[in-house]
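Data availability excerpt. The first of two example chains:
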Amino acid sequence: MTLLQKVIITATLAVVAGAGLYEARQAAQLREQNLALQQAQAPLAEQLRQLQRDRDAAANRLAGLQAELAANQNNKLELLKLRAAMTQARATSTADATNDARATMIQSWLAREDQLKQLAQQHPDKAIPEFQLLSEQQWMDEAMNAKFDSDKDIQQELANLRRTAENNFAGLVQPALTKYMQANNNQFPTDLAQLDPYFSAPVGEDILQRWEIAPSGVNPSVGVGDTIITEKAAVDESMDSHWSIGANGYGSGNYEAPDIAAALTAIKPALKAYAAANNGSQPAYPSQILPYLTTPEQQAAYQTFQKRYPVKGTPP
């Protein structure tokens, strides 16, 4: 071979040898990287296997709990059935006693109601025709707590019945009065019979005979208008309520002694004058109306009231 050929062959062999060495070195590096990767993956593989084992154990535990829950549900249903059976048995065993006790209590109430009605019949001077307006429930309500131990107890029970019955009457009259006045140019009736078409329930003539149309001064403690419907007389002034039914509502107060009622009527103009001068407010002390007592009659009435109900202190 010529020198050039030898050089070319030598160079070619060098290149081939260099390529072989490079490939060998690359292969070695790849093996090292593969080994490192395998070593790094080994813990992850073990963790994966552990997770799979935990999953399988959890699935088994869940299946066991589901089976236990189903068994408990069945046991609970059985327990509920057992309790229901026991409750029914207990109710059955005590039903007669309970019914007997309830029946005894009801019989006692009915007996007290009958006793109260008999007392009303036995004391006609303490009964009023408005008793016919009492409902059975109202009779029963009063009878349940009634006392019959003494004459005073009986008087009080009959007074309670009168108060309830008169309240029922007032509840019928006031709406009828409002309707009448609306239909008659806001005029107050002159006869109670004029209210008959406006009552929501019939009111007997015997009831209306106990009531009258009067000026509000006859019952000054209740302000429901200048003209009122009120009882002609009390059955027992010491216990009865004094009712006033007017255009502005209805209410009751105590019966005042005649001299006090007259005194209150006399000083009413002074009270109105005070209210007009003080933005509609009422006096806090009786002495505040002194400047408004314009007649000897009013001044005498004021003295009568002060003697009966002396008020200590002076207005601020």
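And the second chain:
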Amino acid sequence: WSLLEDKTVHILDMNENYLRLVNFLADASANLPEFMSGSMQVFGEKTVIKKDAIYESLVKDWEGDDKVEVYLSVGLPALGDLSRKLFKDHLPGGRWENTTQEMRQKCSGTQKHNKFSESVFGFLDQLLRKKPNISVLSSEAYVMFTANKTKQWLESKDENKQQRLVTLACRDMNKVRENFKTRKLEILQKQQQMLREKMEKVEELELKRVARLQGFTDKIIYYGLWQSIETVDAALRETETRTEQKEALKAQMNFRKHVLKQTPPKTVPEYDRVLLFSKIENNKTKDLSVEELSENVKKLVQHAFTIADNKASEVSGEHFPLLVGKTVSHKFHEGDEVVWYRGKVISQVMPSHW
């Protein structure tokens, strides 16, 4: 803080001090006895040390030093890691490592800390507590009058000059209010524009999501949802090309993953790769074959029946129409012939009032 508050130290000159701090914490972690004795100085000759009774008490020997050493062995490396993250832009390789003279001149007035802004927020908080109904413009005037030390500046003028300045300020009051209203309106318009853009973006993402799910649904309508191992084998036999077989298998997996939200079975090896279309082989990505995709689809089919059985055993209640896990018959008309198919309910969309 002594270096940060020193106005003769440029903000870019703090690069060296931040690097010294990071290196010091690393050295102190490796040399705890020297650190505890006070012989190590973080900034070398620039280190400000107030050798009072507290300092003497901290550096002298104590019967609990062994415990302190353990705590420091954990705390100092953590502080070192934190410092490297906080000051990364000022350390070697950071964005402010190499700067031009023009940049130094440009940021010569840049504060090295945020004490002033924090003091402004503190003053504003106190002002709002004392005057809860104060307007924004008036609170700005209070803050600026206090922070800029306008009262002291005004009192340094002679009486005539003071009266003339106050008169000019009163005369410009209406103009200041109009400018404030204009600025407030501009801020409101920008906020509304940002809100509209955000809503449009959310709407666009939702439309893309719905269109994506619609695409998965369209494909499953075309291929049908395969709900048994026999159906998988039969559908693959009826498909002419291996490319079409892959598309059909991917459609099954996409529909189960994104529409039915089915998770892969954790009881099978490498369960987290069951819903993937590729694998890593010799550090290269390789597409799964039809046989591999088929095996994964069969695992998902079998797992869906397990989920259905578990849900059927767990869910109860007289108001819950329990269909999950049940076997149902479907009637289809194929020309003049009526064909019955038997299937098992693996999931159910519940009405919102249940």
